[in-house]
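We store amino acids, tokens; thus:
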Amino acid sequence: MTLPQIALFALAVGMLIGVGMSLLVVWAYRTRARFAGETSTVVPDGVADVLGSMDDAACVVDASGLVLAASKAAARFGIEVGAALENPELRQLVRGVRSTGASATESLRITRGGLSLDPRLVSARASAISPRMSLLIIRDVTEQERLDQMRRDFVANTSHELKTPVGAVTLLAEAIESAADDPAQVRIFAARISAEASRLGQLTGRIMSLSRLQADDAISDVRPVSIDEVIAASIEAHVVQADSAGVELARGGDRGVWVRGDSQILIEAIGNLIANAIVYSPNGSRVGIGVRADDDVVEIAVSDQGIGIAEGDRERIFERFYRADEARSRRTGGTGLGLSIVKHATQRHGGEVRLWSRPGRGSTFTVRLPRIDAPASVDKDKKSKKKKRERKAAKSDPARVRNGESA
């Protein structure tokens, strides 16, 4: 072999060795990087920022179930950074995702904040973000479940309640047709049809009112509302009912109190309380409507001297279509929606309803609402009226004004 051939052979061998060494180094670096990724517990860049901006409960957990990062909402379910994921169902979900590598979603009922009496229905989704880390997102769907159940119950109850007057109207119409030759019977059946139609209209109207109050939209017509006007309108709407039942309506308490809200909704709510109090009060008794104003709360109390409410019924008295006295409600045409409307109307105004009752002694329903200051225009009107009274008094008796006596 000549010298040039030896040189070329040596160069080729050197190049092969060099390429081999380079490939070995690259493979070693890649193996180390892959091993580091598989064993690393460092949360990837940006994941913590994303978790910080999430409204849902979410966290990153490692293979041992240790929480490495979490959103603020995760604390509601007792999930904290540096602590182990305690819920066994969530751990099982994460473990399954890590073994299969595919995302998974399950509906679970878990406790919130360690309160075993407060189970929440959640939709939990787990995804693998590395061989040792998984992302867990927990969305609380309890309220959605409650609304869906409420909607189903509402439809079922409404259908059941509508059957009674509709069926009665149908039977009475058939009775009128069969008694066409008897004018007296026709008048009796016609009067009963009118009563059932009135009851059907009342039920339909209250269903519509309750549906509006239970809608997700906020009250549209919000403005300062005078409680004096609400009480006056509610009493005026039920004077005839009270006179027919032999019940006296008495108004007392503070005046000149204001709240923020919708006057028509509040008038209907207070009117429902007055109507119920009249229905369940004996002849010759009194229904009292009182107002008490604290610094930031207005209390409107409607009290009766009626039959009262049994302790077992007080928890359910605000449910839709629930009647503590079924026979009396049927006889008086009650719909079972009045108190439910009161509850939802009060809640929509940021308040609450309280109940005191004793069987045989009567009941008191108290509506508590946030109080506001009287509008500036009302203060101006009061001052203007006061000045007019003073001028009128000065003209009628100037000596009293000169002597500093009050007009």
In short: Residues 326-333, 400-407 have pLDDT under 50 and may be disordered.
